[in-house]
Amino acid sequence: MINMDISVTPNYSYIFDFENDFIHQRTRKWMVENWTWVFYYCGIYMLVIFGGQHFMQNRPRFQLRGPLIIWNTMLAMFSIMGAFRTAPELLHVLRHYGLFHSVCVPSYIEQDRVCGFWTWLFVLSKLPELGDTIFIVLRKQPLIFLHWYHHITVLIYSWFSYTEYTSSARWFIVMNYCVHSVMYTYYALKAARFNPPRFIAMIITSLQLTQMIIGCAINIWANGFLKTHGPQSCNISQTNINLSIAMYFSYFVLFARFFYKAYISPSGKSRRMAASLVAQNSAKLQPTTTSSTTSMGSSSSSSKSSATTNENDVHLRKAKTQ
């Protein structure tokens, strides 16, 4: 295997005690012994979300605005912190040791306690992130295939990859932390009724698509390197490469399909324009109308507008970079 005795840790301005106390051997041992439990977690997840949809079918939806603000704010803060603590290692390695090291040497766990600690938290965080779907079910928003498929596959792949210390995962972790920093901040603002510009949702989806393209490219490069130099030349298994390529390519297809339907196709544009007009008309009528008939009409228009917005935004729910 590759010699790991070179120093590749960036110069962190400050290291917390809990980061300095991180011992990667213990976490790997635990994951090797327990990672298959993830299949039970995914099974329970599927039962809860689809059983929950059936339970909520004839019941009024929950608003959950307060819990949703707290949930998204916590995930946004966690992702921002994770991005700041893992990105320096990737940039340092690329600058001083090149692409090969960034894809084939797992020094980000074995020699960097800061990045290793936040890698461990990243892997574990994929389990509580399943809670995104609970909000969708209880609020009776559209639950699309992309959402729950993304959650399940990222969870399984992340836990499996940690057992192997997959070297290329440093790329996936940094990208996912960065995208989620923007995505969950956007969700927190939406839940708090700040209404950020609509184009931000388009930017987030574009970032996710870019993440999938880079993920595929890294795996294709690693696959070519293994074919040329042999399986011992890079700390990533052929099985992991195959699974990762299949996962990232499927994400790209699903996100690209949504991007087209939501932002490019005429039907998607018509829905957004209709929602905007309904919202404007409702706002104009509300202060001057007192009859019960008009109030009912305004409520119905508002509900349709909310449903349309939820349908267009729901694709961002998990996802996930790996």
Task: Describe the structure in your own words.
The protein is mostly helical. It is 75% helix and 0% strand. The chain is built from 14 helices and no strands. The chain has helices at residues 17-20, 24-34, 37-56, 65-96, 98-104, 107-110, 113-125, 131-138, 145-164, 169-191, 199-229, 238-264, 266-285, 292-313. α4 packs antiparallel against α7 (113-125). It starts with 16 loop residues before the first helix and ends in a 9-residue tail after the last helix. Residues 1-6, 274-312 and 314-322 have low confidence and may be disordered.
Blueprint (SSEs and pairs):
Layout: H1 17-20, H2 24-34, H3 37-56, H4 65-96, H5 98-104, H6 107-110, H7 113-125, H8 131-138, H9 145-164, H10 169-191, H11 199-229, H12 238-264, H13 266-285, H14 292-313
Helix pairs in contact: 2-9, 3-8, 3-9, 4-5, 4-7, 4-10, 7-9, 9-12, 10-11, 11-12, 12-13, 13-14
Keywords:
globular, 322 residues, single chain, mainly alpha
Order of helices and strands: HHHHHHHHHHHHHH
| Helix-strand makeup class | mainly alpha
Low-confidence blocks of residues:
1-6, 274-312, 314-322
- Major sheet attributes: none
- The portion of residues assigned to helices is over 70%
Could you report the average pLDDT, rounded to the nearest whole number? 85
* Total strands: 0
Question: So what's the overall shape?
Answer: globular
Distance between the termini: 26 Å
Radius of gyration: 22 Å
- State which percent range the strand residues make up: under 5%
What is the helix tally?
A: 14
